[in-house]
Amino acid sequence: MIEKKAVGEAAAQYVKDGMVVGLGTGSTVYYTIQKVGEYVKEGMNIRAIPTSEETKMLALDLNIPLVTFAEVNHLDVVIDGADEVDCHFALTKGGGGALLREKLIADATDLFIVVADSSKMVEKLGKFPLPVEVTPFSWERTARQIEELGSIATRRLNGTEPYISDNGNYILDCSFEVIENPEELSQKLNRIPGVVENGLFVNMAKIVFTVEEGKVVRKMK
Ligand SMILES: O=C[C@H](O)[C@H](O)[C@H](O)COP(=O)(O)O
Predict the structure, then answer these.
(1) 199 known member of a binding site
(2) CA separation for the pair 169, 167 (Å, rounded)
(3) Which terminus of the chain, N or C, has fewer Cβ atoms within 10 Å?
């Protein structure tokens, strides 16, 4: 919790007056969003696109002005959390189910910043099961095709019911153990009909805020 707050707040320094900002989802970027709310309260003029309904509610509570892709095409900065970050800044995302909008929004900026406590930093991705968003129709067949790539795909539940994403889809949590080539796996997954998007973010993050030896560090690509 202390690390999440420290890295989340540190990244907020990249939000400046006049910017269009992408706001991520989760318990780490929560602290970034709180800081951005303070900036707005102090008079900073920004507009934001949230990566989930949860973040949208939080931003509205903090009076952060929102926009949509109907009005903007490019974001000045996007700040988001991650479930795993490897040494090349490849990420696993989607533990909170927001991966599709997160990827759409991260794709719309040249400055994608990740906030991740030290537990998220790994040598290779894979220990955290990879979230894959799939269409509910024939999800079982899609799951079998994902399993042919070497994983065990488990449909996410919300209690006893299927978890439904903000986009009306299912999430499959796919255990691959070790992901040797995230880019290749991402391409293979997205070629399977029924896969809407996968939680691998490769060659997207430019800056990672994390904690090393008890101090916040900013790692740049
Ligand atoms: O879908 C959720 C997102 O990808 C989150 O950014 C990710 O799960 C990290 O969340 P947290 O900061 O709560 O660990």
Answers:
(1) no
(2) 6
(3) N
190 and 86 housed in the same domain: no
pTM of the entire predicted model: 0.98
User: Is 43 part of any domain?
Assistant: yes
| Contact by Cβ (8 Å): 15, 36 | yes
Q: How many CB atoms lie within 10 A of CB 77?
A: 20
- Residue 78 lies inside a defined structural domain of this protein: yes
> Average pLDDT, stretch 32-49?
98
Using DSSP bridges, classify how beta strands 20-23 and 47-50 pair: parallel, antiparallel or unpaired.
Answer: parallel
The answer to whether residues 171 and 212 belong to one domain is no
Decide if 161 is catalytic: no
pLDDT in tens, 172-210: 999 999 999 999 999 999 999 999 999 999 999 999 999
Number of domains the chain contains:
2
Atom 3 of ligand 1, residue of closest alpha carbon = 94
Is there a binding annotation on residue 110? no
Locate the ligand 1 atom nearest the alpha carbon of residue 94 and give its number.
1
Other C-beta atoms lying within 10 Å of the C-beta of residue 212: 10
Here the CATH number for the domain that contains residue 44 is: 3.40.50.1360
Average pLDDT over the chain, rounded to an integer: 98
